[in-house]
Write a structure and sequence with these properties.
Helix content: 40-55%
Strand content: 15-25%
Largest sheet: 4 strands, antiparallel
Distance between the termini: 85 Å
Number of helices: 14
Length: about 450
Amino acid sequence: MSGDDRTSRTDGAPGRPRGWVTWPQGRRPRHPGAPRGPLLPPAVSSWLRLALVLGALAALGVFAGLPVLIVVLALIGIVILHELGHFLTARWAGMKVSEFYVGFGPRLWSVRRGETTYGVKAILAGAYVRILGMNNLERVDPVEEHRTYRSKPYWRRMSVAVAGSAMHFLLAIMLLWVLYSAVGYHGFDRPDITQTPRWQVARVVPESPADEMGLLPGDRITAVEERDVVNFGDLRGALADLANRPASVTVIRDGETIQLHGIIGVAARDGVSGFLGVGPELAPPSRANPLTGLGRSLSDFGFVVRASAEGIAGLFSLQGLDGLLGPLVEFESDEVATGDVGAGDPNRVVSVVGVAQIGGSLAQENVAALLGFLAYLNVFFGVLNMFPLLPLDGGHVVIATYERLRSFGGRQYRADVAKMLPAAYVFVIVLVTVGLVALSRDIVDPLNLPG
């Protein structure tokens, strides 16, 4: 058969397509601009992208330090457990969960098990589960309507909505229990710091008034401006009205009494009291028996819930951007007790970068400090998620409760979520704006942390 016959058939049989030539390995497109297939199989490519993320975490541990990496991994674990609470209760209620992802943005890796796809995305700043039919705006195949969130009884929907915060609260109580019963603690009121006589300086904050005066670790302060100092609580009282004033500090160093002179600073905690910049030597931590430790965990958990709720209410009352994580930093830190953290800005809001930095600093102190910080952090996230606006869990609680109150006579009322979207958009914009401002400040003007 001639070449013309091969490229143009008259008997109706299919011929070679125009624009193609014969190569030894088979047919190839003539035009170099034709699309090419992926260089790597999709499975290999996804595993490679996941390996890059894990490598980035390893690099964080190398350059930022192991304590910071531990805190970052703990934060990732916290958000995963939050979503796990939603996932388990939704599955228990018979709802369809189609996705369970860690992170946001481009998908890096995923695997399907049953009806759920599990995966990892590029930005490890959260996690989410996708439950079928969360509101009346989502179109669902009528065949699957019975497996939607919106079709379930009120108590089922409530269990799913509050499961994330409940997981945070359980984690906080467990961490406090481990802290009190296994690791040991000094107590939130710190009686061993403020009341222990013959305490001595354990740490001097760099570039603080104490550092400029020449105070050294091991010194024991006995007086400030003729005011006797017996314990650390007395020191705070002696400094109370000396901010920005010259003062003499009497110390005992190696058995010899000496006087040091300098200008007293201003405490960041209130912007009024005097600040010296020393940390006390802590007495050995004490452990409680498991039953006593559990009781203390529950009582302190209630205290932290109240403090977190007040801080969040302060932020959204437009009375200023209160430092919501301020109470978290207060736990088990010598330097924070002296007012060093965030010096000059007692009401600073911190981003995830600041949280990692604070947690890393506390982790360098001891395990107790890290456990207390993570417990406080879980309480804060749990309370924040109960804020009664979408897209937070509290918004779903409000909708479910409103629908329950409007449903009577056998008729199930459906709230029109579209009417709530403007408020939700404004709320998200506020959250994102606060987060971005805090993030940019934590990068440009890092927290003044020791260590």
